[in-house]
């Protein structure tokens, strides 16, 4: 697989609540849910050898590749391959870990990258770290949004990565709370999401009240994906200029 984002999305088999069902209905319904397997991703030649990513949906939606994750990984490889040394990096809602692993493999870094997600995703993140021989530089951890940060996470990391984390409205305040905990004076969050429902824009509206949010628009690939409702933002801690 290359950097092409035209892959099929499908209704998650783990939908249980009404809200989940609404999310499912906004995606293309499945005929034949993808079985577990390893995908090779080279991001149009940016990664040699390619990233190997196990996809397995048995533990949840993070077990497959998502379009915003592909775009954010590609953006980081194209724009930040050589300016991340000395930076602490944390990924939120990492799923199988595509963004953090791509950064670990294709960007010059010298500190651990923390891939985080809920407990059911831990084994998949660990397996993908192993598959790519990145255990020396990538540490998967459980981080539930809205909960206290795990002690291993550096306070106020320099870079926070979050892709396709906006899709379940009850989780919006939890994600905002975790972003509030993580964003320090020098932190920068690259936040990429695909808008599927009107509620997704409500998330960005709330985020703009709490943080400094700037859309990244001067990038050929992100501009193209904007037409598919995939948006990439820089989020920083907000300072009240009147204080
Ligand atoms: C749509 S997937 C995106 C996965 C990956 N970032 C990508 O782009 O391929 C959303 C991820 O957010 C995680 N997630 C959802 N709610 C969460 C929560 N409350 N705390 C932590 N992670 C959560 C899910 O487990 C899932 O892995």
CATH level-1 class: Alpha Beta
Compute the average pLDDT: 87
Helical proportion? 25-40%
Strand order of the largest sheet: 5-4-3-6-7-9-8
- Number of helical runs? 7
Q: Main beta sheet: strand number and arrangement?
A: 7 strands, mixed
**What CATH architecture would you give?**
3-Layer(aba) Sandwich
Question: Could you give me the name of the CATH homologous superfamily?
Answer: Vaccinia Virus protein VP39
Subcellular location: Cytoplasm
Enzyme class: transferase
Binding site for S-adenosyl-L-methionine: 66, 93-95, 117, 145, 163
Transmembrane segments: 171-193
Considering the chains and any ligands shown, give keywords for the structure.
single chain; 243 residues; alpha/beta; Rossmann fold; 29% helix; binds S-adenosylmethionine
Structure description:
With 243 residues, this protein is an alpha/beta fold. A seven-stranded mixed β-sheet has the order 5-4-3-6-7-9-8, with helices on both faces. Strands 1-2 form a two-stranded antiparallel sheet. It is built from seven helices and nine strands; from the N terminus they run H-E-E-H-E-H-E-H-E-E-H-E-H-E-H-E. Bound molecules: S-adenosylmethionine (SAM). Residues 60-62, 65-66, 68-69, 93-95, 98, 117-118, 121, 144-145, 163-165, 167, 171, 174 line the site of S-adenosylmethionine (SAM).
